[in-house]
UniProtKB/TrEMBL annotation:
GO biological process, one term: methylation
Similarity-based family: Belongs to the methyltransferase superfamily.
Keyword ATP-binding assigned: no
Keywords recorded for this protein, A-Z: Methyltransferase, Transferase
Name of the protein in question: Class I SAM-dependent methyltransferase
Lineage, uppermost ranks: Bacteria, Bacillati, Actinomycetota, Actinomycetes, Kitasatosporales
SUPFAM superfamilies cross-referenced by the UniProt entry: S-adenosyl-L-methionine-dependent methyltransferases (SSF53335)
Organism: Kitasatospora cinereorecta
GO molecular function: methyltransferase activity
Length: 242
């Protein structure tokens, strides 16, 4: 696993306080509305686990970073939060009905992770990966992405991380729009929770801080406002165990 993939622990509480959660519609489309036993793989601080629990699913969280796990356990008392990775899942064979991954599949090594996900899923179980992507169709969001880079982890293709066969059916895709209220003075925190910021040198971090502050102070959609509605598209890829 890369250094960038494990960079979030130092900012675990910041990450948890500013990153968006996932809409109920995305969770329901991914694995259905009927309560099932779900593995949240690469669970981070439990943002997706919270959305899963809210609609009645029984959740087991697996996360490699100790500091992220600590926040997840604190957020979700009673949920099993286990040390582990996508390439070495600490669960028995065929022990869950669904595996979901929020904002993390691009960190996995698919040739190692997919057989593990297949192993822990029950027959006909569902595997779903999803990402919250800022919607750059809004001009001020496009300006923000011009500073920090966009988040298009796969909106342009059905599945860009390699083949999922022979373990899973070809992915189906859905894109669900929603908004999240963000305090304007915390837009910089949203960027500070990204791996690209956490692994950048001091000069690059200073540039990002400065340019995001300037955007918040001068863009007509942001200047003088206490908060703003950040538009997102939640991109979901769903497939079944074969």
């Amino acid at each position: 696993m890369s250094t960038a993939a494990l960079s979030f622990g130092s900012a675990a509480r910041l990450y948890d306080s500013i990153r968006p959660t996932y809409p109920v519609r995305a969770v329901t489309w991914a694995i259905g509305a009927e309560p099932v036993r779900v593995l949240d793989l690469g669970a981070g601080t439990g943002l997706l686990a919270g959305a899963l629990r809210a609609v009645g699913h029984a959740v087991i969280a697996v996360e490699p970073d100790e500091q992220m796990r600590a926040v997840a356990a604190e957020r979700h008392p009673g949920t099993r939060v286990l040390a582990g990775s996508a390439e070495d899942i600490p669960l028995p064979d065929e022990s869950v009905d669904a595996v979901v991954v929020g904002q993390a599949y691009h960190w996995f090594t698919p040739q190692d992770a997919l057989p593990q996900i297949h192993r822990v899923l029950r027959k006909n179980g569902v595997f779903a990966a999803m990402w919250n992507i800022r919607d750059d169709r809004t001009p001020w969001v496009a300006a923000l992405s011009g500073i920090v880079g966009n988040e298009g982890y796969g909106l342009e293709s059905a599945w860009q991380y390699g083949p999922v066969t022979p373990w899973f059916t070809e992915p189906e895709r859905s894109s669900i729009e929603h908004t999240v209220t963000v305090p304007t003075d915390r837009l910089v925190d949203l960027v500070r929770s990204r791996s690209s910021y956490l692994t950048a040198d001091a000069a690059e971090q200073a540039r990002l801080d400065r340019e995001i502050g300037e955007l918040a102070a001068t863009d007509p959609a942001l200047a003088g406002r206490d908060s703003v509605e950040m538009p997102y598209r939640t991109c979901v890829y769903r497939m079944r165990r074969v």
